[in-house]
Structure formats: structure tokens, C-alpha cells
Design a protein that fits this description.
It is built from 6 helices and 10 strands; from the N terminus they run βαββαβααββαβαβββ. It is an alpha/beta fold.
Amino acid sequence: MEKVTLKELLCLEKEDLKGKLICFPTDTVYGVAAIASDIEAVEKIYAMKKRSERKPLALLCSSIKQVEEYVETIDEAVLFLMKKYWPGALTIIFNKKPGVGDHLAKETIAFRMPNSKIALAIINHFSIMATTSVNISGEVEINDIEEIAEKFGDWIDYIVTDEAYISNVPSTVLDATGKSLNIVREGNIKV
């Protein structure tokens, strides 16, 4: 694992991250991430976390336009919530367009726009990031750089060391796949 500043990470090109994992602070917790289109790196996240492939990763985006590329529709109520709470700690699950991002999810796909200058700079430079908390699946999230390096240094290629405020509270998850909106997980945002 290489410890880097955000500025150093942004000197790399998208091709430099092929098959690689990066770790950085979001507004909620530290995330381990891969460029969403990089199948090899996405599979590495599942292996690192010992996570079931039936449990899709969330995608971090920096614009609503990015979401539109992956989802069937965004209804007006959901668009209102996106504009009100993004960037922020709200993850929204959508029905996925068939044939798009099939390595990420089968029928539904989750997006969040983090309220983090570091995370948004990474997304804007490299692309949408498939991400999840840094931990073994089902265990408590790790938000300490030294502990992350000790436990996952063999898996993660780059960790951003810039100081950042994180809430230590996971995002609220909203399921927008049915006729009504349902809260899957209550976080910082009360919808």
C-alpha cells in the first residue's frame, strides 16, 4: 500500500488504476474503491471484504447525469431528494438499465454523491467509483489510516492521507425501485 496525498493521486491517469484499489475518506466513513468499469478491481473488493457477490457495491458519483447512464428512470420525487440531499449522506437504490454495468449489479444499482471535496475530486478525475466501507463484510467500519494499512495493506494499492472530517455514520439508504420509497437503512439524513 502506498500512502499518497490527494494531489499525488490525481497525478495518475485512469489507466494507472487498472486492477487497483484506492482508499479515501468520504463524508461518512473511509471507503475502499475501484473505478466502476474495472471488473478485475471490483472483484478484488469482494475478495478483500469476503463479501457476497449478491450484495452489490454502491457507486459514488459527482453528477446526476452519471446516474442517468445506469438507471431506467428517475421519478420526480427521487430527483427532488437528489437535488435536496446531494452531495450528502443519502444512497439511493434504482432499477438498473439492462446490459449496463452488469458486473456491478443484476437488477438494481445504488448511487451516492458524497459531500467530500476529496471524494468528488477523485470521481471527477477518474470516473464513477464502486465503493464500500473498509472492513470485512459484517464487521465494524475502519476509519483509522494505520489500522487500514495494517489489516488491508496487501489489498489496497493507494490510501489518501489528507485530513478530512468524517461523520463515522453510514449513509441513509433509500430504495426507489418500487411504487413507494422505502428506507433500507437510517443514517445521518432523515428523509
